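User: My instructor asked us to take a sequence, write out its structure as tokens, and then describe one feature of it. I'm not sure where to start. Here is the sequence I was given:
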Amino acid sequence: MSGVRHSELDQPRLLAGIDLSGPANHRDTAFAWFLCDEHGLTYKDVFTDVSDEGVVAHVGRMAKRATVIVGIDAPLSYNDGGGDRPGDASLRSRLKANGLPTQMVMAPTATRMAYLTLRGVGLSRALMLLSGQLEVVEVHPGASLALRGAPAEALEVYKSDDVASCRQLGTWLRDQGLHDLPVLEGPSHIVDACASALAAWHWKAGEPVWLHRAEPPGHPFDFAC
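Assistant: Let's start with the prediction itself. The structure tokens for your sequence are:
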């Protein structure tokens, strides 16, 4: 298990990892949630085919019970004028320095990303309107897996919903402290939701493997792996 310090996690919290797809693609959105305490993350459930309304409802119920930490895999802001945000450029540089593929980091306004960014911006602001103790962080599960040393051969193909690779990454995630995680055989969105939870957990514990601090008002959320 990881050596995360839990000085800020001495009281039980609930933590959600969300892998978003575009606004019209609820089917490929996954929401995994965990109990978060000094022992790690204990898996509770995962939902797929989730709308914005569904995410807000799930998190709202959680926020009535405990402090909630939400890691969202989607851009939660965009750069005025387009192109990379400072955080995108920083993460790409970190991946390059580690000899890892950089194409997984795309500018929020790129053609393939714009609708996902639209959903991420809208959903994150809706979550922050909920009552209760709630913290939101932008995460990049693919980069988090790669920078933390997940099996490279599995990372190369799991996005194609390869069963063996998803299963291998699930085993790796359990070794990182995601307790009671079931066997993951795909789709990859569930793996990414769990990896988003891992990144958010390390962020809250003060030990992200990479971090770009929020720069409000344009970029109001930390971006972490």
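For the description part of your assignment, you could build on this observation: The two ends are 17 Å apart (CA to CA). Try explaining in your own words what that tells you about the chain.
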